[in-house]
Every structure is written in C-alpha cells, then in structure tokens.
Design goal:
Layout (H helix, E strand, L loop, with lengths): L7 E3 L1 H12 L3 E5 L9 H6 L4 E3 L4 H13 L3 E7 H5 L3 H9 L6 E5 L16 H6 L5 E4 L3 H11 L6 E5 L3 E3 L14 E4 L4 E5 L4 H13 L4 E5 L2 E3 L3 H8 L4 E9 L4 H12 L4 E7 L10 H7 L4 H11 L23
Length: 334
C-alpha cells in the first residue's frame, strides 16, 4: 500500500469499462444525462453503437436495462448514486432484481462526497440496495480496486450496485492488491481493536490505525468492499481476535456496513463490542468543501480514533489525529 498523500488518476472506471467492453460485445452502456460526470463519455466516444443516453429518466433507464438484459446484453447503467437508487427503486426491483438479471447499476458521488445537499447526497443507497434480494453491493476504495472490480462483476450472476467516487481518484493500493468478490482483506494486523472500512473511509481507517499504534493500541484494518454478500467468515475471525470493532463508512450508520457487521456478530452470538462511524441518522447539507462536510458529520480519522478509544474503554482523551493529506482536485463538486 502507498502512504498519503495518495497519487490520483482521472477516469479509471471509464477507461476500464471501455477496455472490458472491447472484449465483451454483450456490454452496453446507459447514461441518464450525466455522461461526462460518470466517466462514460469515453465509452460514448469509443463505442457509440453500444451507448444509449436515456436523458433525465432514471426509472426508464432501469426498465430499459432490464429489457436489454433479457435479450442477452450486459447493461451498465450510470448516474449519481442518489438518482440510481432512491428515484428508480421500484423499477430496479421489478425490472431487474426480481427476475435476477445481470444489470450493473453504477452510482457516483456517494455519501457526503457531493456538496449538493440532501437532493444529491446518496447517504442511504447502500441500505436501500442491501435490502433488495439478489443484489450485490460494492463500495470500492481506490483506482486499483475500480480497475479490478469492473471485469470481476461482468459475469457475476444477478444485479450489482457499484458505488464510485467522482473526480480525481486516489491510488491507495499497489498493483499487487487483489480485489475479491468473496473475501474482505486484512490490511493491517492488530489484536486490540479492528477498524472495518470501505470506499472513501478506508484512508481514514488506515491513518487511524497508525495513530492508535503510536498510542500503544494495536489496531487492525480490514477492507470490506463487498457489503452484500458480506464476508462473515473474515468478520467473525477478526472479531475473535480483538476486544472491539469499529466500522467506518461514508453513509448513514443505519443499514450500511455497520449494520451488516452488527448482523453478522449478533447472529453468531459474538460478544465483541462494536462502534459505528458514519452519518448519525441525519441528512447533511451542501458545502463547497468535501473535507468540511466530513468533519461536520463525523467522518474523519479523528472520529475513527475516538470511536476505537471509547470502544476499548481507554481512560483520558484519545490521541490526536492529523487530517489525511489529500491531493488538490480529489474532491470534485457537481
């Protein structure tokens, strides 16, 4: 793994989708009038005969994607996460998930990575999609995982929801990293507390682990890109080796990664204490600065450190964590 500030790249998803589609003629690309914003202007320009811009009609796009899948295509449908889930939910269920069709729904600008306020912030998309039978839900952390996840989901049975950051994408993992649809990855070993994270919160978890280690706390870090079906085996194995667990997600704490981990622990009768870092059952607001929103709504390295400190019952104040350095442009507004 690399150290922050992480280098960034542009449009790793768009480039990878084009590369895979050149090898797989079944792939078709749909856009709900957010073509450049979802990186599929590259697909439009390179493979125009398999590109469809449906306009600002997300429900129609999902029904169309289901119909295309019935005819043997593998549709990739693109828009912002909030418009990919809340708005066309009924069509996703009836046209895609119930018939268990291979539609790949790609939602950009997760959680409070959007400055657009509640109308544009997909803070409950993971919870919504987790609740749908047959749906696989993925929240990747960096460009390396994006490049590996796209080909991995092409032949996956049933529908997939892929949650992606927009703009300049950090490169956290080296090329040796292996994205898995079935296994979470223990990135850092530790036996006091385990920090389980994905998406835009993985960098905070990695930095929090270093801060805690310097304060004498052995903190494991587990990357959980696949929220459904969650890798219960790894979650329980890690839980058996630590005294507390902390989940960190750019999403409401209701129904997302934290809830998935809690369900695994509860059903297995695990007594390991769990603390969840995420939006505390609240809508966020608009802002010009992504880091400002992450600070206001408790999604920083310091929040992860504080949660681990409390979960372990440590006395005194938690160690201070400096903000994770970021590259200019990593936070992309609408």
């Amino acid at each position: 793994m690399r150290e922050p500030p992480y280098p960034t790249v542009l449009k790793p998803y768009g480039e990878t989708l084009v590369e895979v589609a050149r090898q797989r003629p079944e792939i078709v690309c749909l856009s709900a009038d957010l073509t450049r914003q979802c990186e599929v202007d590259l697909f439009r320009d390179e493979i125009p005969d398999r590109f469809i811009n449906v306009g600002m009609a997300e429900a129609h796009m999902m029904s169309m994607a289901g119909a295309l899948a019935r005819e043997g295509h593998i549709p990739f449908a693109h828009t912002f996460g909030v418009f990919a889930t809340r708005r066309p939910y009924d069509q996703i269920i009836n046209s895609i998930a119930y018939p268990n069709l291979p539609v790949r729904i790609v939602g950009f600008m997760p959680g409070v990575s959007s400055p657009g306020g509640p109308s544009h912030q997909a803070i409950e998309d993971v919870a919504l999609m987790r609740a749908i039978p047959n749906m696989t839900v993925i929240d990747v952390a960096d460009a390396t995982e994006i490049r590996q996840a796209v080909p991995a989901i092409v032949d996956l049975p049933g529908p997939v929801y892929l949650r992606l950051k927009r703009g300049e994408i950090p490169v956290i993992f080296d090329d040796e990293h292996e994205f898995s649809l079935t296994q979470a990855q223990v990135l850092v070993d530790g036996d006091d507390v385990a920090l389980l994270a994905n998406g835009m919160m993985l960098s905070a978890a990695l930095s929090a682990s270093q801060v805690l280690h310097q304060a004498g706390v052995s903190a494991a870090v587990v990357n959980v890109p696949v929220v459904k079906p969650i890798d219960a085996t790894t979650v329980l194995d890690v839980a058996s080796r630590v005294r507390a667990m902390v989940t960190a997600e750019n999403h409401t704490i209701v129904g997302g990664l934290g809830s998935a981990v809690a369900e695994v622990l509860a059903e297995a009768g695990s007594g390991t204490r769990l603390s969840r870092v995420g939006l505390a059952d609240t809508f966020a607001e608009g802002a010009r600065s992504g880091p400002w929103l992450f600070r206001k709504y408790g999604l920083t390295t310091q929040n992860v450190v504080d949660a681990a400190w409390r979960a372990l019952g440590r006395e005194g104040e938690a160690p201070t964590a400096e903000p994770v350095p970021s590259t200019e442009g990593e936070y992309a507004p609408v």
